[in-house]
Design goal:
Blueprint (H helix, E strand, L loop, with lengths): L29 H11 L5 E4 L6 H9 L2 E6 L2 H10 L10 H11 L3 H6 L3 H11 L2 H10 L11 H12 L11 H6 L6 H20 L4 H18 L20 H11 L3 H15 L8 E4 L5 H5 L7 E4 L8 H4 L1 H8 L7 E2 L2 E2 L19 H14 L3 E7 L14 H12 L4 E5 L6 E2 L13 E6 L3
Parallel strand pairs: 1-2, 1-4, 2-3, 4-7
Antiparallel strand pairs: 5-6, 7-10, 8-9, 8-10
Helix pairs in contact: 1-2, 3-11, 6-7, 7-12, 10-11, 11-13, 17-18
Length: 452
């Protein structure tokens, strides 16, 4: 097959909003993916981004003129897609004007008193740019899972949280403060996150804001937490580890930078950035939460997708491990913490994290088979992003090989209806026999299955 004419490539990276730092986000190759889909077929009008993640691909496709269906197994991803695709957008509401109400409604004096003297000491250390003091404070702040130094009011809070595990915590507050203050965030930042989250819910419950406005505000809040989180890679798998004998040069620099971020100001800035990118209300996009195995019943009655774009996970690394805190903030449920060898995990993970079948070597083939069957059953073309692994012997080992995935595609679409392209600026295309060797380095491919 001849190379497709890609035409003029645009800089899509500057035209979409990335809510959080995200593993495998397609910003680097976004412009190529969009142009590839544009040239795949002129008959595509509605595209289903079935692992929407940060929603950047969905945003770019919507900006190109497609109708979008966006879904994901994680609630925070659906929040991102709903906000940025303008799902249920009300143009008559000025979100910027809501800031004054948020500022007037937020009241966390009682919470500040609860966490004294650590909050005052932390703010002073931030002002002084004193990393040693910040590190010392972070190790002393009592947490739900580390109650040392807790006075009676904090112990009472921890007991109340224990009694309400699994329930929403709006009436209690302090979920972020009690579980992640002093590790992932400074205690003052955690208090601000709790306060803003509770205020967003209060405005929603009163009818001051609707679903779209709530999703915009939640997206902005999660984006601010991503900027300020004290962790390698700016995800939420583990906060930076501080232990005796470790070279803390880098950590000292980062704790000054991360703890110095003003959550409320970042939150406001993010809202304004989102409003510049969010799609208008006259576009009829859809976003919903669903796992692949539940998707067929979820989709019926919504829209018919001409093409499904799938960017699933491929390694054993569960995304819920890296983004459990955004999910907790969105749902605002008091987590039951996972215990490993008698201790809370370093990541402070909840014990009911969603586990994707795509991240299991045993279950991945069946999961991909469900995806491919879904596309064929709905008479939708299918584009699958596949990322190769250089060694196959590291933590990035793929749960399914490219050859194995192509074999499944062949079962449903037939080899003549499948095109494989290496995702570089030349769009090198291969016959399937050329891809028999799995070890092709860290390359990215697009597999296009045409439903005839």
């Amino acid at each position: 097959m001849q190379n497709k004419d890609l035409g003029e490539i645009q800089n899509w990276e500057s035209m979409v909003f990335r809510p959080i730092q995200y593993l495998g986000v397609k910003l680097r190759t976004l412009e190529l993916i969009i142009k590839y889909i544009e040239n795949a077929s002129s008959s595509h009008h509605t595209i289903w981004d079935i692992f929407t993640g940060t929603s950047v691909v969905a945003q770019a496709l919507a900006r190109t003129g497609y109708n979008l269906i966006a879904s994901d197994a994680m609630e925070y991803s659906v929040v991102f897609a709903s906000a940025l695709l303008g799902v249920e957008r009300n143009e008559d509401i000025d979100i910027s004007a809501i800031f004054s109400e948020i500022d007037s409604v937020i009241n966390y004096n009682a919470t500040i008193n609860l966490w004294e003297p650590w909050i005052s000491e932390e703010l002073e250390a931030v002002h002084q740019k004193n990393p040693d003091k910040l590190i010392k404070i972070s190790q002393e702040i009592p947490q739900y899972w580390r109650p040392k130094n807790a006075r009676e009011p904090i112990i009472n809070l921890f007991n109340e949280l224990s009694a309400s595990i699994g329930n929403t915590g709006y009436s209690i507050g302090s979920i972020v403060s009690a579980f992640y203050g002093g590790t992932y965030f400074g205690i003052s930042q955690a208090i601000e996150i709790d306060s803003i989250r509770i205020t967003i819910q209060s405005l929603y419950n009163k009818g001051t804001i609707g679903n779209w406005e709530k999703n915009v505000l939640l997206t902005a809040l999660l984006s601010a937490t991503s900027d300020s989180v004290f962790s390698a890679g700016k995800h939420f798998a583990q906060a930076h580890r501080i232990r005796p004998g470790k070279d803390l040069t880098f950590i000292k620099s980062r704790i000054i930078q991360d703890r110095g971020i003003n959550i409320r100001q970042h939150f406001k800035n993010k809202v304004n950035e989102i409003l510049k990118c969010a799609r208008p209300s006259n576009e009829t996009h859809v976003a919903f939460r669903a796992k692949i195995e539940d998707v067929p019943t979820e989709l019926f009655g919504k829209k018919k997708a001409d093409l499904i774009y799938a960017d699933p996970p491929y390694t054993a690394q569960q995304y819920s491990r890296f983004y459990h805190i955004p999910e907790t903030i969105v749902n605002y449920q008091i987590p039951r913490l996972q215990i490993h060898r008698g201790k809370v995990t370093r990541g402070i993970y909840p014990d009911n994290r969603y586990k994707s079948r795509f991240c299991s070597k045993r279950q991945a083939p069946a999961a991909f088979k469900d995806l491919i069957f879904l596309s064929k059953h709905n008479k939708s073309d299918l584009v699958i992003s596949y990322s190769g692994s250089k060694t196959g012997k590291t933590g990035n080992e793929r749960m399914i090989s490219l050859a194995g995935l192509l074999k499944l595609c062949n079962e449903y679409f037939g080899s003549r209806n499948i095109t494989v392209s290496e995702l570089d600026h030349d769009y090198r295309q291969f016959n399937q026999s050329d891809l028999a060797v799995d070890d092709r380095g860290d390359k990215e491919f697009l597999i296009y299955c045409e439903c005839t």
